Amino acid sequence: xxxxxxxxxxxxxxxxxxxxxxxxxxxxxxxxxxxxxxxxxxxxxxxxxxxxxxxxxxxxxxxxxxxxxxxxxxxxxxxxxxxxxxxxxxxxxxxxxxxxxxxxxxxxxxxxxxxxxxxxxxxxxxxxxxxxxxxxxxxxxxxxxxxxxxxxxxxxxxxxxxxxxxxxxx
Amino acid sequence: xxxxxxxxxxxxxxxxxxxxxxxxxxxxxxxxxxxxxxxxxxxxxxxxxxxxxxxxxxxxxxxxxxxxxxxxxxxxxxxxxxxxxxxxxxxxxxxxxxxxxxxxxxxxxxxxxxxxxxxxxxxxxxxxxxxxxxxxxxxxxxxxxxxxxxxxxxxxxxxxxxxxxxxxxxxxxxxxxxxxxxxxxxxxxxxxxxxxxxxxxxxxxxxxxxxxxxxxxxxxxxxxxxxxxxxxxxxxxxxxxxxxxxxxxxxxxxxxxxxxxxxxxxxxxxxxxxxxxxxxxxxxxxxxxxxxxxxxxxxxxxxxxxxxxxxxxxxxxxxxxxxxxxxxxxxxxxxxxxxxxxxxxxxxxxxxxxxxxxxxxxxxxxxxxxxxxxxxxxxxxxxxxxxxxxxxxxxxxxxxxxxxxxxxxxxxxxxxxxxxxxxxxxxxxxxxxxxxxxxxx
Lengths: 170, 441
Known about the structure:
The structure holds two protein chains of two kinds.
Chain A: E1 2-4, E2 7-9, E3 13-23, E4 28-29, E5 35-36, E6 39-50, H1 57-67, E7 74-80, E8 83-100, E9 106-117, H2 126-130, E10 147-152, E11 155-161
Chain B: E1 4-13, E2 20-34, E3 49-55, E4 66-70, E5 76-79, E6 82-89, E7 92-98, E8 108-109, E9 112-114, H1 119-126, E10 134-136, H2 138-141, E11 147-149, E12 152-153, H3 154-165, E13 168-170, E14 177-180, E15 187-188, E16 199-202, E17 208-218, H4 221-226, E18 231-232, E19 236-247, E20 259-262, H5 273-284, E21 288-295, E22 305-311, E23 314-327, E24 331-343, E25 345-354, E26 357-367, E27 371-375, E28 379-383, E29 386-392, E30 396-400, E31 405-419, E32 422-425
Parallel strand pairs in B: 10-14, 15-22, 17-20, 25-31
Antiparallel strand pairs in B: 1-2, 1-4, 2-3, 3-7, 4-5, 6-7, 8-12, 9-11, 13-14, 16-21, 17-19, 18-19, 21-24, 22-23, 23-24, 25-26, 27-30, 28-29, 29-31, 31-32
Helix pairs in contact in B: 1-3
């Protein structure tokens, strides 16, 4: 499901993913009414809740030891859009519940912890930020006057030079 | 988050070969406090500093030789020596860097009577150990300096000199100190870079200025004994003071009397007193101050004359006295403007046309006399299912704003047309994959 510092963990779990598009403190409303959004980057946050069965308590204790160490961060690999993403992230808010059952049995259940990436997964470019506001258009690789493209599953595809495209009137 | 400090220091010098081993590098910083200021009135000589926390486990010695504060693009905001270093955590150092002027307060200068010196020579005496770290603007170098300076620190001496030559010391964005006069060509802070909402303030009226000029002649020992305005250096010099007053014509009649005096500045003489009073009046007689926040990507700094918006249709012009900068991907500065005067503005309408039709327009409010150059954007419009991208024939409209209505037209061609799920390329001359317009990425 996920790995920490190269170690794969297979304890059943719920993972809540949040992408935080982080703006810097200098963002604010401009005199012309627009909002100046100074985006620093997109930081990934994963909230993990483990649901181990009683046979997995050994793994559970090992994982608890790993995540509760006082270090700046760990290398994580998390699920991401049908694939995985590798992030260097810190762990915050580790908590679980100690349960005593009527029959006297005891166990730990449901450790949950929050993983927040230390570096942005996506970073804006400064030149892009300064000349902001232009509409993105189809990716036309080698444009030539008179070319016609059509949109397919593979993206924009050149379908030929159409004779009726007026190349001079405009 | 994306700003750094460059530090470099000497680790060791091989006594045999003289080989120098350097340490250091580029370190991320946080908690930056950076508020440089200038005193354009020549009343004082601020020594600017910045403080920040440097994230590194390396040992940082205070005698670092490289010390550059950089933003996300690597542009330098200040290049000052470290003057205080404190370890506040295992991997964190709080450092204070001070302007090159900082050293001047520890340099004592002998009394001196200036009789033939130029500004270049007099200023050079203030920087005995930092001669490579300052520059004096060419138009100021030959200004004659006449008069007396008592024993004082180099900082005090330089303050006197700046006062009489009408200059200020600029130490922001530069490596060292640039001594220059205020540039009287204003820079415009664009409306779309101005944050909500500038604050206008009025300080107490200054009703008058009084400056005493001195004329010196060589005298006798007896005259020197009898006259308190005289100096024995190295021979008796007898000073004749003469007071010059200037009344503020704009101050209301019921304003409380508030006269600012300079009566013991012996470099003021009959040749320079009139220019000094004119300059002082420029800053002191106008009580209006404006504080505004703007996007500042290395564009503005203390000492600049700027035109700024206080509302979408109101503008002022004033001198940047102080700048407090904060950094993200871009930078935002709080600028304090002094001597702010109202600026007459006028409306400029840019009409974007294709053949005979208008496909868009933009309206600006700009200062009268402002030479504008406004980039023509690509225009992307969808009408009845057909999306067209229009390309400007010229990259920008240019001109000068006159009083009243200003209208200018920018002609467009169709670059791309998207209809029936097909994209037609009509006019792409000069548009390449690298073109900044992004129309064809």
